[in-house]
Backbone:
């Protein structure tokens, strides 16, 4: 049984990511089941950062289908190019949305979601999944989140 170390309140977001990365690597390095690893990663991110919603959508049958997550009930299927998740998939790039109400075509799974970051998980130049994180605060994500969440996405493809 693994325990993710949480640290005291006066550490920066970057400190938390730096501490979390090696722990996630250790957690998933002995496991080759993608769903199990995504479940633990979403749990760890939610536990450490207290984000409103953390989860994965997997590319299946030409759409994004809800995978392991932590948070409130979510949209089950998202079409290619639709919403923030579908756009990150289509464009194969991380998208940060400071205010979801200002994102054209935003899919509101929960009205409590105010800002969002979506990171594509890319294996052999194809998006196989996206990591979707929602915050109930406006403008909660920036380049630090993008940098470390992209590192986590790389971890997933090298260990799955």
Residues:
């Amino acid at each position: 049984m693994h325990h993710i170390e949480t640290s005291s309140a006066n550490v920066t977001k970057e400190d938390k990511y730096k501490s979390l990365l090696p722990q996630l690597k250790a957690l998933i390095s002995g496991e080759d089941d993608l769903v199990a690893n995504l479940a633990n990663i979403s749990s760890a991110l939610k536990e450490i950062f207290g984000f409103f919603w953390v989860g994965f959508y997997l590319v299946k049958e030409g759409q994004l289908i809800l995978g392991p997550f932590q948070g409130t009930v979510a949209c089950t299927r998202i079409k290619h190019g639709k919403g923030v998740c579908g756009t990150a998939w289509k464009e194969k790039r991380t998208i940060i949305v400071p205010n979801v109400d200002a994102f054209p075509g935003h899919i509101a799974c929960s009205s409590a979601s105010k800002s969002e970051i979506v990171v594509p998980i890319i294996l052999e130049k194809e998006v196989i999944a996206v990591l979707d994180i929602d915050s109930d605060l406006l403008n909660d994500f920036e380049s630090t989140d993008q940098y470390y969440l992209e590192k986590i996405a790389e971890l997933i493809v090298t260990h799955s």
